[in-house]
Write a structure and sequence with these properties.
Structural class: alpha+beta
Number of helices: 11
CATH class of the domain at 7-71 and 108-179 and 276-366 and 399-403: Alpha Beta
Radius of gyration: 22 Å
CATH architecture of the domain at 7-71 and 108-179 and 276-366 and 399-403: 3-Layer(bba) Sandwich
Largest sheet: 8 strands, mixed
Number of strands: 19
CATH topology of the domain at 7-71 and 108-179 and 276-366 and 399-403: FAD/NAD(P)-binding domain
Order of helices and strands: EHEEHHEEEEHEEEEHEEEEHHEEEEHHHH
Bound molecules: flavin-adenine dinucleotide
Amino acid sequence: MQEVPSEADVLVIGTGAAGLSAAVAFAKAGFSVVVLGGAEARGMGRTVALFEASLRFYDALGLWPRLASCAAKIEAIRMIDATGSRIPIPPLEFAASEIALPAFGENIENDKLVERLIDIAAETGNLSLGREWLTGIAYETDRVCAMFDSGRQVRAKLLVAADGHKSTVRAKARIGARRWTYPQMALTVLTAHEKPHHGTSVEFHTRNGPCTLVPLPASGSEPHRSSIVWLMSAQEAARRKSLADASLAAEIEHEVGAIFGQMRLDGGCGGFPMTGLRVSRLTGRRIALIGEAAHVFPPLAAQGLNLGLRDIAALVDCVETARTHGEDIGGERAMATYAEARRADISLRTHGIDVLNRSLLVDFLPVDLVRGAGFLAFNMIGPLRRAIMREGILPRGHLPPLMQKPRSFPKAEGLRRGADKDRRTV
Ligand SMILES: Cc1cc2nc3c(=O)[nH]c(=O)nc-3n(C[C@H](O)[C@H](O)[C@H](O)COP(=O)(O)OP(=O)(O)OC[C@H]3O[C@@H](n4cnc5c(N)ncnc54)[C@H](O)[C@@H]3O)c2cc1C
């Protein structure tokens, strides 16, 4: 850890994936940055699927080559209805080749992503990193002053709150947050299995929520690995977490119809209560909220960190624009531009995921009919399929500059346009 200065252009609170990514992005844009945060819970078996816009973001910052070696490509997504719905709902399969991409995105262990971002942050010029807990904030004429448990104070023109769903910054800045809960926990596990995943993520939709397998890269002597995110009641999650590894692996194998053959646990196991959170404002005086400090929803469709990275790319753009025009980088105009830039995207994802999750939980024929019709339409109407796929990975509307530049792919990954016919099926 470097010596932490008492003044910076940008102070980032939180050393999770969002805070570290923001700190590196601001430092690379030429701002002096301090990032301070508490320690992460590790070994929770959690991964994040990062989609094309997020990969472009890391690529534009020159970070993707450092992260790619611990990530696995997601080339296809298969959704299987296992709700026992009274109307038959056909399986849905999307292939990245249908929208001329070699993959929808890449799946990476959360611990490895954070570990590597810490290494990168430690090597980045203009950036100081430390482990401290924020306890309070105060204002001076043209600065915000943050106080820490060590007694340290850091002053900055802009404070970026990346301190997660229980954000202290948000509370201290008196920014309201509406929180709600779902009757579900996500059980997260890393597994090794007998058969290859062929780059396919498989999502089983059950009445408790989805159980999803997401590809992971080979590791050590394990060539075939996937992460599991399995939504269930809190009681079931507690029971399953207390099982011996072999028994839990057997229950997972049963839930997913043994599509990848025999399964073993290959790392830690975590449990996450499913909640949602909306903030009343995305900004305060000299404060911008990003990541889970700004929005929380269940991990359906793997949108959380992807949305958080779009917050960061938009915030960097607004702050750079303010600097270019000789304006205050933490001033009202920069904060208002950021809030406006993020409003629609955050609102769409929070509502969309909420509706999708609740539609699975309800055993009610009309809801099943609507969901079934949706699945059928996605299966049969090519332009709709492609629009949905693009919206999930490269959202419509204005992408901030850090996400605009298409990545170049090695020839071997050649884009297979209109390759519906050679879609892999697991
Ligand atoms: C089961 C599950 C699966 C998911 N899968 C995906 C996926 O596939 N794709 C995807 O995009 N998203 C996914 N998500 C969402 C994604 O994991 C989160 O959006 C992301 O991890 C949030 O990162 P963050 O940095 O905003 O918050 P956090 O990771 O919570 O980090 C907050 C940081 O702030 C620090 N902190 C807190 N309070 C203070 C304080 N007072 N002072 C200093 N530091 C403080 C903490 O120590 C921590 O370091 C998933 C989430 C879950 C639960």
